[in-house]
Design a protein that fits this description.
With about 450 residues, this protein is of the alpha/beta class. Helices cover about 40% and strands about 15% of the residues.
């Protein structure tokens, strides 16, 4: 079956399981290419928003580089009833559901989706194509995906063509998108891989086809675990050399052609990086050889608590205001955000802490973090110390005169990514102890 022609001609639809950042952007990209999409989600609010033709994820249009218009959104239908996904004309299924919960790999939703899909009755002459976009622990593809379908006596590679195609695009820049970035894909047999190439080629220009699903399955977790190890090493270096601008050291080291840029931070966050080493560890036949991974997990987990201790001492026990709840700029995602542990650490010490994030309402912050919010920038002067975690555009766009009107002498500011670093000399002149994480003296009391 030529899935590409069926989709482009409108004779078949694309089904996407999960309408979060990955699933929704998958649908938008295919819809932009003229493919009808049906998205399933257990979140009723997401389904309701999409049914109205609205994006339920704030700032997504910024990262896409355009705002989906009414005609494009008309190519997308959302449902909260999984039975709708078994419609005969949905021949291609992309699975983009979370495989993480509370910081650990979690595959119950994947098992549930594959079990539901096993109710379909394709044939060798009219097969279905299933593509897993979610991150997997090595071994889960055979155990969960292939295992469930084979137990249902469905012919993998014939009735169901199944493959893996993890996402790499980065919700940080319109240029780092599905179309431009290389993507590693592979199916259980050559026919599946070719079908995946045809379908994903509608929206991706650079597809790297690998004939071994065991290898493809490991790629996403491996590349993220490399990032995890290196990012944690940068944090360790910053603490080991507090009297050196380690951030500058890493920037200069990155001028070497073999070394990417890493920088010290308050800790990693999000769905991918903090959990990646656990995917690798849990899937390894011999995890005893992964000592570096074990140390990375320990050190990265403790980094936010160390930040809390540093700020407690620098602010002499005074109130701390945290700017940003999400783990990344201009995203409304607090999954494994280091802010959660920074706030927890400060509260354990007995410090009054408040959090502000433009994408979260006051009641959301109280529910998620257990603290109150504050007005930005009006209330900045009430804090002895400020920690800027995600560099939201709002923080960088605040005019200097407005910002300095609400700051006061004697405050300490710890800036995770240096969004206010352009005013460092002005902070010094005002008597404010300003540091970017990892610069000279950043953790010196």
């Amino acid at each position: 079956m030529n899935f590409r022609c069926q989709l482009i001609d409108g004779k078949a639809k694309l089904g996407v399981w999960g309408t979060g950042y990955i699933g929704l952007t998958t649908m938008i990209n295919f819809a932009k290419s003229g493919v009808y999409c049906v998205g399933y989600d257990v979140d009723a609010r997401a389904v309701e928003s999409l049914s109205r033709g609205e994006l339920h994820i704030p700032t997504l249009d910024y990262w896409l580089g355009y705002k989906p218009d009414k005609a494009l959104m008309g190519m997308i239908r959302a449902t909260g009833d999984w039975r709708d996904m078994l419609a005969e004309d949905i021949k291609v299924h992309l699975i983009a559901i979370p495989t993480e919960r509370n910081g650990d790999p979690w595959f119950e939703p994947l098992e549930d989706v594959i079990t539901k899909l096993s109710n379909r009755k394709p044939s060798i002459d009219n097969p279905d194509l299933i593509i897993i976009e979610s991150t997997l622990t090595p071994g889960m593809f055979d155990k969960v995906v292939v295992g469930i379908l084979e137990k249902a006596e469905l012919a993998v590679g014939w009735e169901f063509l199944i493959g893996i195609a993890p996402r790499r695009d980065w919700f940080d820049s319109p240029e780092k998108n599905l179309k431009a970035l290389a993507r590693v894909i592979g199916g259980t047999n050559p026919e599946t891989s070719e079908a995946m190439r045809d379908v994903l080629g509608i929206i991706c220009d650079k597809l790297i086809v690998v004939p071994d699903t065991k290898i493809v399955e490991m790629v996403k977790a491996t590349e993220n675990s490399i990032l995890h190890i290196c990012a944690t090493y940068a944090c360790q270096m910053a603490s080991a050399y507090p009297d050196v601008d380690v951030g500058e050291v890493f920037r200069l080291a990155a001028t070497h052609w073999r070394i990417p840029l890493y920088y010290p931070s308050v800790g990693t966050g999000g769905y991918c990086i903090p959990v990646s080493s656990k995917y690798i560890r849990d899937g390894a036949p011999h995890p005893e050889f992964l000592g570096l991974t074990k140390e990375t997990l320990r050190s990265d987990y403790n980094q936010p608590y160390y930040i809390a201790e540093v700020m407690f001492k620098k602010a002499h026990g005074g109130a701390i205001g945290i700017l940003g709840l999400s783990y990344k700029r201009d995203l409304k995602v607090h999954t494994l955000s280091p802010v959660l542990r920074i706030a927890e650490g400060l509260k354990q010490i007995g410090v009054v802490v408040k959090v502000f994030d433009p994408y979260y309402a006051a009641e959301e912050i109280r529910r998620i973090v257990g603290v109150d919010t504050f007005r930005y920038p009006d209330d900045l002067s009430q804090f002895a110390g400020l920690i800027i975690v995600p560099p939201h555009r709002l923080f960088g766009q605040t005019p200097k005169n407005v910002l300095f009107e609400h700051l006061r002498e004697g405050q300490t500011i710890l800036d995770n990514e240096g969004i206010w670093s352009k005013w460092k000399d002005d902070f010094i002149a005002k008597g404010i102890d300003y540091h970017r994480v990892g610069d000279k003296g950043w953790c010196v009391i």
